[in-house]
Amino acid sequence: MGKWIYKWLPILFGCHCRSDRSFFWKGKQFPLCARCTGELTGILAAAVTYLFFHCSWIVSLFFMLPLIIDGFVQQLTNYESNNFRRFLTGCLFGVGFATFVMISVSFTVKWGYGLGRQWRNLFVFSN
Question: Please, what are the averages of pLDDT over each run of 10 residues along the chain (127 residues)?
Fold first, then answer.
C-alpha cells in the first residue's frame, strides 16, 4: 500500500514532491508536497462533512483564491511561502474545490432528474 501511495498520489495531484517544500515524518518525506498534502486533507474533510455542512458555490470559489494568490505571488516575485502557509492554503483550496464539484454534481443530478420527469410526462401516455 505504501509503495502505491508514493507512486500514484504525486501523479494524481501533479505534485513536484520537492523535499524543501514537503513535510517529513520520522525522517521520511511525505508522498506529496505541503500544498498538495493540504489539498488532499481539504478534499477529504469536505467529502466527510458535505452531508452535514457545506458552503455555497460562491464561498467555495473564494476558498480557492488564497492558494492561487500565494502561488502566483511566489512565482512572480522573490517572495517564498513557507510550508505551513502552503498547507493552509492547500486545505482551503481542497475544501473549496471538492465542495464546488459536489455542488455541481448535485445540481446536475437534480436537473437531469427533473428533466427526465418532464420528458416522461410528455412522451408517456397513460391509459
Answer: 79 86 89 93 95 92 96 92 95 97 94 85 66
The pTM is what? 0.82
For residue 111, give the C-alpha cell. 436537473
Q: Burial code of 58-79, b = ≥16 C-beta within 10 A, e = fewer?
A: eebeebbebbeebeeeeeeeee
Give the contacts of 36 (CB within 8 A, at least 6 positions apart): 9, 10, 13, 15, 90
Question: What pLDDT was estimated at residue 117?
Answer: 83
By the 8 A CB rule, do 107 and 61 touch? Answer: no
How far is residue 92 CA from its own chain's centroid? 8
Torsion sign across C-alpha atoms 61, 99, 30, 13: negative
Pick from 110, 105, 74: nearest CA to 89: 74
